[in-house]
Specification:
CbiD-like; alpha/beta; 11 helices; about 35% helix; 5-stranded mixed sheet; about 20% strand
Length: about 375
């Protein structure tokens, strides 16, 4: 089922969608044969066939029950060990159909912008198709005379959802059933990247016409205090994924993009990096030295800034000269200039800068 001897930190796991599909297939097979198997082969969205262990199998007349425990591999995933549960019921009134519903612990969609029906379960499109495909495979000819209602539930889903951004996206009462391939890669950036894009899409449906992108929790808290008139869903922690967040903002037709950040990430954006991860590119301290020089800093200060590896050092040297506000304002202006060339006339841009304690230093324009 999984690479047992894979090097530590590289073991892949399975998505909530894949586990749900496996449980649904096992329960459906239980209705066909009279007994839920204790192992089930399930087709993943990426085309792989994988065998899952099945627990709590039971058939009671027209209903069958099965559960698969999610193994996220070496990914520090808050839904690891979730009990993805499927209750499948025969629906003689819906021959040939597979009806998908959400039970306890699966979130309910309450806001538009996610590509899911408002009022329906937070089961994403790929897992929906995958669950349906597996039910159809197990049901075979029986589908000609009856339909199947599949209810997915997660007993721990309400608690697990508290560790996700679901509530901010308007997904209430549980987790989302996710996964585009069925496989979870360790420290998967794909899931986070997808949540950033989703967050921007939701912000685009709010009617304020603005999304506020931040690089982390501290900067988000700071901009929320600066812009208290905006609802929480207008704020998206983009992390390092500037390119994806900006692309989603263009697609959503947002009129204003506000970026909140500290000196390091803002320098990366000013120098043209679209993925601002520490490992991707070094901070261009030469750019900061040029800004310092333009504000009248002495040559030795500019040289020291250029030779240092951190943007924070530049900010501290300029603070000591009483030029901190001017320096951070100029940096914010450079961020706007850089983004203007990449996204000309697509939205208004505003940049808010805070220090390492989350206090406001500067803004532009």
């Amino acid at each position: 089922m999984m690479e047992k001897n894979a090097p530590r930190g590289t073991r892949t796991g399975f998505t909530t969608g894949a586990c749900s599909a496996a449980a649904a297939r096992a329960a459906t097979l239980g209705l066909v044969t009279g007994q839920v198997p204790d192992r089930i082969e399930c087709l993943l969205p990426n085309g792989d066939l994988v065998t899952f262990a099945v627990l709590d199998g039971a058939v009671d007349g027209h209903t069958a029950h099965a559960m698969v425990i999610k193994d996220a591999g070496d990914d520090p995933d808050c839904t690891d060990k979730a009990h993805l549960t499927a209750d499948v019921t025969l629906r003689r009134d819906l021959p040939g159909q597979v009806l998908l519903t959400g039970g306890f612990g699966v979130g309910t969609v309450t806001m538009p912008g996610l590509g899911l029906a408002v009022g329906g379960p937070a089961i994403n499109p790929v897992p929906r198709r995958n669950i349906t495909t597996n039910v159809q495979a197990a049901a075979a000819e029986l589908l000609e005379e009856t339909g199947f209602e599949v209810c997915i539930s997660v007993p721990q889903g309400v608690e697990m959802a508290k560790k996700t951004l679901n509530a901010r996206l308007g997904i209430l009462g549980g987790i989302s059933i996710l996964g585009t391939t069925g496989i979870v890669k360790p420290y998967s950036t794909a899931a986070y990247r997808a949540s950033v894009v989703q967050g921007v899409q939701v912000a685009g449906t709010l009617g304020h016409g603005v999304v506020v992108l931040t690089t982390g929790g501290r900067t988000e808290k700071f901009v929320m205090q600066e812009m208290p008139h905006l609802p929480e869903a207008a704020f998206v922690q983009m992390g390092d994924f500037l390119r994806y967040a900006m692309g989603a903002a263009v697609k959503a037709g947002l009129k204003q993009v506000v970026i909140g950040g500290m000196v390091g990430k803002l320098t990366k954006i000013a120098q043209g990096e679209t993925i601002t991860h520490a490992g991707r590119a070094e901070v261009d301290t030469g750019l900061l030295a040029d800004i310092a020089a333009s504000l009248g800093a002495a040559q030795d200060v500019c040289d020291a800034i250029r030779q240092n590896e951190t943007a924070r050092y530049a900010g501290e040297r300029m603070d000591a000269l009483g030029l901190g506000t001017a320096f951070h304002t100029a940096l914010a202006q450079r961020v706007i200039q850089t983004l203007r060339t990449r996204y000309p006339d697509q939205f208004d841009l505003k940049v808010l800068v805070c220090d390492f304690d989350g206090r406001k230093i500067a803004e532009a324009p």
